[in-house]
Amino acid sequence: MSDTKQPPDRRDFLLKLGTGAGICAITVQAAASMRSLVPNVSYDSPTTVKLGSPAEFPEGLKFLPDERLFVFRDGNTFHAVSAVCTHLGCTVHAEPLPNPQTVDEDGATVKLTHRFLCPCHGSRYRGDGANVSGPAPKPLAWFRLSLAADDGQLVVDLADAVEHDFRLTVG
Amino acid sequence: MRLPTLVRTKPEAPGVHAEPFWSFRPQSDREAGDAIVSNFALHWFPAKISKASMAWSYSFWLGTISAALFFLLILSGLPLLFLYVPSVERAYQSVKDIEFVVTFGSWIRAVHRISAHLMVIAVALHLIRVFLTGAYKNGAGRGQRRQINWVIGVVMFLVTLFLSFTGYLLPWDQLAFWAVTVGTNIASSIPVIGPDVRELMIGGRAIEQATLIRFYVLHIIVLPGLLGGLFAYHMWRVRKDGGLARADAESVLESARPVAVVPTKTYTLLGVARGTAPAVTAKSIEAPETTVNAVPDLVRRAAIATLGTIAVVSIMSVFIASPLEEPANALVTPNPAKAPWYFLWLQEIVTDTTIRIGSFTLNGAFVGGVILPGLLVGLMTIWPWLDRSSSLAAGVWLPRSRRTQNIVFLLIIVFVLALTFVGMVLRGPYWNIYWPWEAWPEIPGRI
Q1: What is the pLDDT of residues A148-161, one digit of tens each?
Q2: Residues of B with CB under 8 A from a CB of A
Q3: How far is A9 from chain B (nearest CA, A)?
Q4: Which CATH number is correct for B48-254+290-431, 1.20.58.220, 1.20.810.10, 3.30.70.20, 1.25.40.10?
Q5: Residues 6 or more apart whose Cβ sits within 8 Å of residue B363
Q6: What is the pTM of this model?
Q7: ipTM
Q8: Do A36 and A52 belong to one domain?
Q9: Which of A75, B23, B266, B353 sits between 20 and 30 A of B246, alpha carbons compared?
Q10: Tens digit of pLDDT for each residue in B152-182?
Q11: Do the Cβ atoms of A137 and B354 come within 8 Å?
């Protein structure tokens, strides 16, 4: 072969064309195959769930395993705290306090009757969901409660996190 | 072990191997070479091997043992494929059937499970051995690229862990469900892309049928195929890098006695060597007394290692039953919920690494579950390029020139083992520390 530049011959061109086409085809097919694994529809359970009539809830705390939710009742006011640990998503357990206490938080009075403990990595939360110790990076979420327009049941919106001064007053 | 010879009426043509099999008891060097070259199962073996690289006390044959365990896993996985049903309604029941109804089912499952656990151990020990002997280093041979094989090895180690983890979910019991909950939530703790990564891993937002089928396909096709391919390349590279690093160390030790040559011939012209006066060195590796034929010596030792592994696993599987917990229940987290033992050190780290600076909080799941292991694996991968020690340290156990790095490496191993011990033995309900002699408190099942 001499050093002078030869014009690319047909063989060379066809070889490059074939290789390029092959790579393109495989890449696009691989991308299509990968894309098919990204779900387009998520058949999640609905985020708005009817929890039952407010009268069915006992004073204090009730754990709803299906929604992974604690519903607190203090007279005729209600609020709901998530049971999903903010660290890695295990379900926290509620432990009643021997001496319930009342704290003043941002103007709102909170009655602390329980504390929450996570079985996976030992995170601890106060009764209002504030993270106290362990690896949990933030407090447990609070969710919006409302009353169903049709039958007056308590409804939680698991997609709507609210501030810790949220209370639903019934009646 | 020579198999019956066919009656030959005509002499063989060149390149024709008239017998149906090959000889494992070669009578000559020619036959020994033939036993490799004409052997479809052994073609990736060298024809000759140095005695030093076959020493039990050098490699402990951990790579062969890992490969034997992989072979056993494929073998014991085959009957399980016929018996296991990858659906959330039936997975648990089918595993229960394998355990209690199918004849020899519990033994096959035990072989599969114990091989998997032992493979994690064997592969980890193999990696530790390679590090401590500096076997990722290039020795005497020109153009060696042992770093590549080290990187392949690290990837194979990760694939082994992931294979184990994907198999963990398949029984669809409590252990499985919560290990996967925690494992995939670690992925979702990555900022910005985390939730999408988790969704891709589990095929939705909750651990359900889509998750099971994903882990199943990864477990039976994708990851074993990947590991098999990497294994073939790993072995090929061992050959192409001139065998084990031990052989290099051996040739350096006893060679370097230049033999005087007549300086009149121009070897360059002949294409034999560079320069006009080549120094011919008698490498011990080429000396007849330091090498043996791969058939039968290497084959015999490989067979001993493989059969020994099979025997140990088979016997252990008779005595150690495989656990099966309650069916998976998304409503109740077991207390304590522990990861598989080889991930317990990570569970310890994610427990302890949530960082709080003022009001800014970095989730321990991200620090301990992604950043720290990522750094560790990254550092391990590029280590051959950072290790500046002499090539004389290749293939030598704990050489003086690599003392510091070996000590640091061992300290990290000890640290990981200590965390594993804490997670395995000391952690009780609510992940509290309990000494072995302390009883765990009674915890009501729910609330």
Answers
A1: 888 889 999 988 88
A2: 178, 181-182, 185-186, 189, 199-200, 203-206, 210, 214, 331-337, 347, 350-354, 361-365, 429-432, 443, 446-447
A3: 34
A4: 1.20.810.10
A5: A86, A87, A135, A137, B189, B354
A6: 0.85
A7: 0.78
A8: no
A9: B23
A10: 999 999 999 999 999 988 999 988 888 888 8
A11: yes
